[in-house]
Structure prediction request, 207 residues.
Amino acid sequence: MEILGQADRLPAHAPDGEEAAGAELERLRAQVAVLESERAALWWAIHHDDLTGLANRRLLNTVGPEMLRKAARYAVLVLDLDGFKPVNDRYGHAVGDAVLCTIGRRLSNLVDGLVVRLSGDEFAAILTEASLAGAHRDWTRLVGAISDAVAEPMTIDGNRLAVTASIGVTTGHCGPATMTELIRRADLAMYHAKTSRHRSYIAWDRQ
Prediction:
């Protein structure tokens, strides 16, 4: 009778082995989800610019070569802002940062490819055939549209501001050179554009 009395006092729905295993499985799933989220956040932080949210040089070197291998035609450009330092000096770094973010958004809106902040006020992009749509049926028109978009005035903290860009471009198709070599060529073309402002803001690599 005493044993029966103790049994009557046991919980009516005591968890059995199956319920305990299910609870443990849910706990492990939640833990895995947290770890995957942390890993994704770490990957993003390592491969992106923390100011503009654009890809950084590390991501360019990681995914750029594969993008080029898959592209029948491609263009790689390097873009350096002109007139940015006076804006930064006069209005402060907060306004300068807002200018960089604005330029980053404009580039991302135009480029169906990879847009990169290399450093400071220097950007790069990989353009593939997917970028050639609508009015931008060739590299010249697309790069011209990028130049125009950068130069469009912007208003930040009540200040009407404008910067322009010197752009260097190199193009290719099938069996591309290394990412480092393509950036080097585009960078040299960009410096040519910067020192030849009486002719064009854009220079094309002819190698």
